[in-house]
């Protein structure tokens, strides 16, 4: 897979006004010195959208849940009560604990988790997934592309969770099992203030992207009247 070919195809399919996707990956090398981010680490994605790479670890991430869902620490003991009794995202703390047991958050052995716009990368080597910050029209294209070569009902999955769990945790787990699901996220009210009101996250694990890379130009994103009208609207 050639990253420059994909960028060319993406620009042709969605137009120049569509933001390039953001890649994320783990390594032991610090790619960029990043200041500590208090609260939700997705605040730091504004820098990434502007072209900077950020390198996260347990010292940079200020949120205990963020440290946990990115694999740098064990679950903080306060999380079940906090998510249920304060944030009110689950009816009981026990439901939070059960949710965490179900997804089996993996621990990373790497020192850093990096985020960078794909035009800042030389290749897709070691990338866990691609994060698209998508409007409804862009989601239409991404979802239709994802379903182009499969009839699986869970091709695009929408499990509720924190921004970091829906983007990072689920993608890492999907890669580990060579899975085919993409993930729609940013439904968590705690992450939404850090992005425009019309954006959701759409994440493609590399285990799935290595297939979708080859189907992009075959799909409705090229040479169809219906998508052409949507592309025009995206770029108005």
From TrEMBL:
<dbReference type="Pfam" id="PF02596">
    <property type="entry name" value="DUF169"/>
</dbReference>
<dbReference type="InterPro" id="IPR003748">
    <property type="entry name" value="DUF169"/>
</dbReference>
<protein>
    <submittedName>
        <fullName>DUF169 domain-containing protein</fullName>
    </submittedName>
</protein>
């Amino acid at each position: 897979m050639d990253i420059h070919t994909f960028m060319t195809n993406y620009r042709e399919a969605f137009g120049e006004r569509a933001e390039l996707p953001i890649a994320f990956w783990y390594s032991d090398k610090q790619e960029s010195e990043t200041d500590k981010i208090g609260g939700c680490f997705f605040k730091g994605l504004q820098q990434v959208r502007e072209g900077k790479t950020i390198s996260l670890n347990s010292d940079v991430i200020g949120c205990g849940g963020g440290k946990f869902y990115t694999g740098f620490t064990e679950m903080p003991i306060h999380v079940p009560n906090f998510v249920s009794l304060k944030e009110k995202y689950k009816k009981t703390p026990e439901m939070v604990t059960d949710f965490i047991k179900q997804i089996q958050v993996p621990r990373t052995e790497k020192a850093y988790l990096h985020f960078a716009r794909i035009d800042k990368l030389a290749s897709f080597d070691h990338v866990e997934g691609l994060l698209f910050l998508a409007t409804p029209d862009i989601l239409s294209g991404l979802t239709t592309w994802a379903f182009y070569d499969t009839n699986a009902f869970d091709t695009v999955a929408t499990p509720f969770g924190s921004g970091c769990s829906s983007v990072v945790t689920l993608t890492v787990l999907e890669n580990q099992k060579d899975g085919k699901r993409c993930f729609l996220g940013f439904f968590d009210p705690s992450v939404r203030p850090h992005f425009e009101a019309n954006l959701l996250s759409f994440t493609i694990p590399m285990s799935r992207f290595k297939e979708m890379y080859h189907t992009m130009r075959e799909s409705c994103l090229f040479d169809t009247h219906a998508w052409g009208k949507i592309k025009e609207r995206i770029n108005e």
